[in-house]
Request: fold
Amino acid sequence: MSAPSGASTPIRAPGAVDRVVGVIDRVSTAAGWLAGWLIVPLTLAVAYEVVARYAFNAPTKWASHFTYMLYGAQFMLAAAYTLLKGGHIRTDVFSERWSSVTRARIDAVCYVLFFFPGMLFILYAGGVEAWQAWRIGERSGAWPLYPFKAVIPLTAALLALQGLSELIKCVRVIRGRRR
Reply:
């Protein structure tokens, strides 16, 4: 069916949806890339602490706080990438026997009923906590804690975006299109 003359041509849905899914997947990949590179300063800090502690008998106070926060940020920032790659825990013992359409239907229902409400709650609660930490300049020892707390709502937002991408992929499978 063509658009009436004079009317603007509607955006072709599959192309637009493909672009949205592609952008979301690239954002999750970039977050995973960043999380992966956080291993470099984490390794350097741990190595410094080991040398200072055992070679010079001069342990540091800052290293444990720094590595704790950096590892937490690395773990959280990799969550959306892990969802993209299908690396989160699943009950494959049940779903491996289902057809791809059945699996997609159940995944879609679970995203809508459980995943998105959970991410919205974490986004809200984490945002409130992060805002409070920034407002008061919260610290843990010598290190500011507020950037670390800001990673929590950022992670929820990234996971919600990737969840949207996965939901769109489920709908494609349900409608008989590619995943």
Q: What stands out?
A: The chain is about 75% helix and 0% strand. Helices lie at 13-37, 39-55, 62-77, 79-84, 92-95, 100-136, 146-174. The chain has one domain: 14-85+96-174.
